[in-house]
From TrEMBL, chain A:
<feature type="transmembrane region" description="Helical">
    <location>
        <begin position="91"/>
        <end position="109"/>
    </location>
</feature>
<keyword id="KW-1133">Transmembrane helix</keyword>
<dbReference type="GO" id="GO:0048038">
    <property type="term" value="F:quinone binding"/>
</dbReference>
<feature type="transmembrane region" description="Helical">
    <location>
        <begin position="343"/>
        <end position="364"/>
    </location>
</feature>
<feature type="transmembrane region" description="Helical">
    <location>
        <begin position="257"/>
        <end position="275"/>
    </location>
</feature>
<feature type="transmembrane region" description="Helical">
    <location>
        <begin position="613"/>
        <end position="632"/>
    </location>
</feature>
<feature type="transmembrane region" description="Helical">
    <location>
        <begin position="424"/>
        <end position="443"/>
    </location>
</feature>
TrEMBL record, chain B:
<dbReference type="GO" id="GO:0005886">
    <property type="term" value="C:plasma membrane"/>
</dbReference>
<protein>
    <recommendedName>
        <fullName>NADH-quinone oxidoreductase subunit K</fullName>
        <ecNumber>7.1.1.-</ecNumber>
    </recommendedName>
</protein>
<keyword id="KW-0520">NAD</keyword>
<feature type="transmembrane region" description="Helical">
    <location>
        <begin position="32"/>
        <end position="52"/>
    </location>
</feature>
<comment type="subunit">
    <text>NDH-1 is composed of 14 different subunits. Subunits NuoA, H, J, K, L, M, N constitute the membrane sector of the complex.</text>
</comment>
<dbReference type="GO" id="GO:0048038">
    <property type="term" value="F:quinone binding"/>
</dbReference>
<feature type="transmembrane region" description="Helical">
    <location>
        <begin position="6"/>
        <end position="25"/>
    </location>
</feature>
UniProtKB/TrEMBL annotation, chain C:
<feature type="transmembrane region" description="Helical">
    <location>
        <begin position="57"/>
        <end position="79"/>
    </location>
</feature>
<keyword id="KW-1003">Cell membrane</keyword>
<dbReference type="GO" id="GO:0005886">
    <property type="term" value="C:plasma membrane"/>
</dbReference>
<protein>
    <recommendedName>
        <fullName>NADH-quinone oxidoreductase subunit J</fullName>
        <ecNumber>7.1.1.-</ecNumber>
    </recommendedName>
</protein>
<dbReference type="GO" id="GO:0048038">
    <property type="term" value="F:quinone binding"/>
</dbReference>
<comment type="similarity">
    <text>Belongs to the complex I subunit 6 family.</text>
</comment>
<dbReference type="GO" id="GO:0008137">
    <property type="term" value="F:NADH dehydrogenase (ubiquinone) activity"/>
</dbReference>
Length: 645, 105, 172
């Protein structure tokens, strides 16, 4: 079974893709059947992925030498493209995690989407989404990865705009697509550079060649440019500043989609890509610094926005942006292990929290404002308590999963700072402060939603088993999922690392520090939003620092800025180009047509209709050509295609 | 060279005949005369074919076969051409090619 | 000696062909033109005989000198007014056409002089018809059949063309 799984890992993405085809072409009229097909395919894929993961994690040889097998897709002189499978601990971990979260989300969706007229379509999209992401994960080639990357983008477009009757959903889908396209364009440029300079896009081949970039006649500066171009893709996809704007709007899709996008598939694709191409970024310290700094900045930036948001899913969205910043920070300081570890734990607790939020929305009939909730934990105990576990995990309370990964990131950042990098301590400060803010805004949401006074107008009820079961599984994973990466027995770091494995001594001081930050954040939230039943203090603070509050509440006016930019610059230049098109291009085209017509008018008088004249001209021309070919200069004869006799 | 027959002689004869035919085809007004001139040109080609057959590939007979086909097609062409000329004459009462100018602009 | 005779025959035949051909394209009377055309065709048939192509020569006499020329005479008589003088005028193009064909002839002559023909030296078999028949009916059977169809179509088409116009003429 394990051997079969290892050699047939391509089946993992293929099964959901097959489910997509089956649903679209066969079972669409029968929603129940479509759901069953989709879940069955996803679950088989999960089982297969687990076998793959088992096979990889019992064979340490895969750490150094990944299992790669590929097929020639197309080739020509000096340019070949293979499609294939690359299995190493990183991709095996992702395969396992993505397929599991996708399975749980599909099970959850049977409850959440119950009775929706587009039920079958929804499941087909979910299957395609999972298939693209799984395909991306096992890609052995950057071009293959890019194609699936785009497919992921397409699926997110379809799913965010799933409620096509809502204008806001359609707008959000377009926004997501266009914003990520901007990033993809940069990335495509980067990939083209890589192909042109190194002659391959195979990950293994590039990993061998990039360190010797000087032999390929390029300077460090150009390599830095390439690395930054490649990184623009993940900026768009993983919602890093300044292309993060699509991510919160992506909440317009159904909640399971938000969970899938935010936890397991789309946004982590960017982090995964950076992790996959870390051999490139580790060569160029400049690009790595950019990544680390953008990551840290995004983390704190999104966290400060999340503090004041009111919609439950929006808070979670900004928290995702913030946590993705964390992952980028870890990768930027050069630790694949920490970045991937946070990706792993984040997938569980963020999926858990999104699904929990979905459960709340389901119970409250899509009322999303946290200020209008309260005391829900009494009516919805499973949702509530699992959500609390998620909250503890993301805030970084030991022994929940988030603590270990966040601690790991802080450790590597501190080490990076101690190695004498210019901005190292600033990065560390940003990361720590974000940890405090994260604990605060998460628990603000939890206290407002699940504790405090019940609102009489709400009539919540616990969700069906199909929705609570995934919550329970994810809560369990969010609780214990981090234990494989504790500083005392770091199994994780042994398997998933870049360069040499990380051997940090447990840094008790730092651990204490991060726990203190988390507790401080939770305590502050407790003081402001639980003890203070009327929330007077919170309101007072908002009053007193109104400019800051407004700045945060309006997300630093980034959307408005972009809109202004679009209006002023893009529309203005569009007007210029429109004028140019109408008055210059059109006139050239019309002029050409007019000239053709006019010359035709003139030339037609040569058409006398007298055949003998035609024959005369014909033979005259024949004579001239014959003379030129037979007696003319060889070059002219050659150019006219004649053979000199 | 001597007195032996040479393919060039026949080619020059053929060329001369072709040129005469072409002259007729270009300079006569009467459509039937033009048809006749075209027959002369075809005949010139036949001389060429048969001469080459004799001197270059006497065993293969391809030249003669081609000549026979040319004669066949020429006969068909004369028949059809005459029919067309008669048809036009019935309608327009002229066989002057310069009056046949309805296919202009 | 045989060579001298054949050369003599060639010169005579060539003179006959070219002379009659010139008359064909220059005479003003169309009927005379057709008659000189018959002479030219017979001369060409003689040339074919000189070239050991007796079957083609026979076909030439039968088809051209016989059928085609008779058909042409009928055509002339169907379309021409009673007065045959000046029935075949020359148009303005002859001034251009004359130097053109002269040039063409010179060019072809020069090319012929330049080209090196590989003469095989073998004789054409005496029995040409026996040699032609299997080639025509084996290797060239499809072109042969196509030619037959072409003739049928041409005949039918000619009949149709002439007949339809006549019907129209009666109707109007």
């Amino acid at each position: 079974m394990v051997d079969f799984a290892l050699t047939h890992a391509w089946l993992v993405p293929l099964l959901p893709a097959l489910a997509f085809v089956i649903i679209v072409f066969l079972t669409r009229p029968w929603p129940k059947l479509s759901g069953a097909v989709s879940i069955a395919a996803m679950f088989s894929s999960f089982v297969l992925a687990s076998s793959v993961a088992y096979g990889v994690f019992t064979n340490p040889g895969f750490i150094e030498r990944p299992l790669i097998y590929s097929l020639r897709w197309f080739g020509m002189e000096g340019f070949t493209v293979d499609v294939g499978v690359m299995l190493d601990p990183t991709s095996a971990m992702m395969l396992f995690m993505v397929s599991m979260v996708a399975t749980l989300i599909q099970i959850y969706s049977t409850g959440y989407m119950h009775g929706d007229p587009q039920y079958s379509v929804f499941f087909s999209y979910l299957s395609l989404f999972a298939a693209s992401m799984l395909g991306l994960v096992i890609s052995s080639n950057l071009l293959q990865m890019f194609i699936l990357w785009e497919l992921v983008g397409l699926c997110s477009f379809l799913l965010i705009g799933f409620y096509t009757f809502k204008i806001s959903a359609r707008e959000a889908a377009k926004k997501a697509f266009i914003t990520t396209r901007i990033g993809d364009f940069g990335m495509l440029l980067g990939l083209l550079f890589l192909q042109i300079i190194f002659g391959t896009l195979d990950l293994a081949g590039l990993a061998e060649r990039v360190p010797h970039y000087e032999q390929y006649g390029i300077s460090l500066g150009l390599l830095t440019l390439i690395a930054i171009l490649v990184f623009i893709g993940p900026i768009g996809k993983s919602g890093q500043f300044p292309l993060h704007v699509w991510l919160p709007d992506a909440m317009e899709g159904p909640t399971p989609v938000s969970a899938l996008i935010h936890a397991a598939t789309m946004v982590v694709a960017g982090v995964y890509l950076v992790g996959r191409t870390l051999f490139l970024f580790s060569e160029v310290p400049g690009a790595a610094e950019v990544i680390a700094f953008i990551g840290a900045f995004t983390a704190i930036f999104a966290a400060t926005i999340a503090i004041t948001q009111r919609e439950i899913k929006r808070i979670l969205a900004y928290s995702t942006v913030s946590q993705l910043g964390y992952m980028m920070l870890a990768l930027g300081v050069g630790s694949l292990s920490a970045g991937m570890f946070h990706l792993w734990t984040h997938a569980f607790f963020k999926a858990l929290m999104f699904l929990g939020a979905g459960s709340v929305l389901h119970a409250l009939h899509d009322k999303a404002d946290v200020w209008e909730m309260g005391g829900l934990i009494k009516k919805m105990p499973i949702t509530g308590w699992t959500f609390v576990i998620g909250g503890l995990a993301i805030a970084g309370i030991p022994p929940f999963a988030g603590f270990w990964s966040k601690d790991e990131i802080l450790v590597v950042t501190l080490e990076y700072a101690r190695q004498g990098h210019a901005l190292g301590y600033l990065l560390f400060f940003l990361a720590s402060f974000t940890a405090l803010l994260t604990a605060f805004y998460m628990w603000r949401m939890i206290f407002l939603t699940f504790f405090g006074k019940e609102k009489p107008e709400n009539h919540p009820h616990e969700s069906p088993l199909s929705m609570t079961f995934p919550l329970l599984v994810l809560a369990a994973l969010a609780a214990v999922g981090g234990l494989i990466g504790t500083p005392w027995a770091n199994v994780w770091g042994k398997w998933i690392h870049f360069g040499h494995p990380h051997h940090g001594e447990p840094n008790y001081g730092l651990m204490f520090f991060s726990v203190a930050l988390a507790v401080a954040g939770i305590g502050l939230a407790y003081r402001l939003y639980y003890q203070d039943e009327e929330k007077k203090l919170a309101k007072q603070l908002a009053e007193r620092y109104q400019p800051l509050y407004k700045l945060s509440y309006h997300k630093y006016y980034i959307d408005e800025l972009y809109q202004w930019f679009t209006r002023q610059v893009v529309d203005a230049s569009a007007a210029v180009f429109y004028w140019f098109d109408i008055h210059v291009v059109d006139n050239i085209v019309n002029g050409l047509a007019g000239a053709t017509k006019l010359s035709g008018q003139g030339l037609r008088y040569f058409h006398t209709g007298r055949i003998q004249t035609y024959a005369l001209v014909f033979f005259l021309a024949l004579l001239v050509i014959t003379v030129v070919l037979a007696f003319g200069s060889p070059t002219l004869a050659g150019s006219m295609g004649g053979v000199h006799s | 060279m001597g007195t032996a027959l040479n393919p060039s002689y026949f080619m020059v004869l053929s060329a001369a005949l072709f040129a005469i035919g072409l002259y007729g085809a270009l300079s006569r007004k009467n459509a039937i005369a033009v048809l006749i001139s075209i027959e002369i040109m075809l005949t010139a080609v036949n001389i060429n074919l048969v001469a080459i057959n004799k001197f270059l590939t006497p065993e293969a007979f391809i030249g003669q076969i081609f000549a026979i086909f040319v004669i066949t097609v020429a006969a068909a062409e004369v028949g059809l051409g005459l029919a067309i000329i008669i048809a036009i004459y019935r309608n327009r009462h002229t066989v002057d090619l310069d009056d046949f100018n309805w296919m202009k602009w | 000696m045989d060579n001298v005779y054949s050369l003599l025959a060639f010169v005579l035949l060539a003179g006959m062909i070219l002379g009659s051909a010139l008359l064909v394209v220059t005479l003003r009377n169309l009927v005379h033109s057709v008659l000189w055309l018959i002479v030219m065709f017979i001369g060409v048939a003689g040339t074919f005989l000189l070239l050991n192509a007796d079957f083609v020569a026979a076909v030439q006499v039968l088809v051209y000198a016989g059928a085609v020329c008779i058909m042409l005479v009928f055509g002339v008589m169907l379309v021409q007014r009673p007065n045959m003088e000046h029935s075949n005028p020359i148009n303005w193009r002859f001034k251009l056409a004359a130097p053109l064909v002269g040039g063409l002839f010179i060019v072809i002559g020069l090319l012929t002089a330049k080209s090196q023909l590989v003469v095989s030296g073998q004789e054409v078999p005496a029995q040409t018809v026996q040699a032609l028949a299997p080639i025509l009916l084996n290797d060239f059977v499809i072109p042969f059949e196509v030619a037959a169809i072409l003739l049928t179509v041409a005949l039918t088409g000619a009949l149709l063309l002439v007949k339809e116009v006549k019907a129209n003429g009666n109707g109007s």
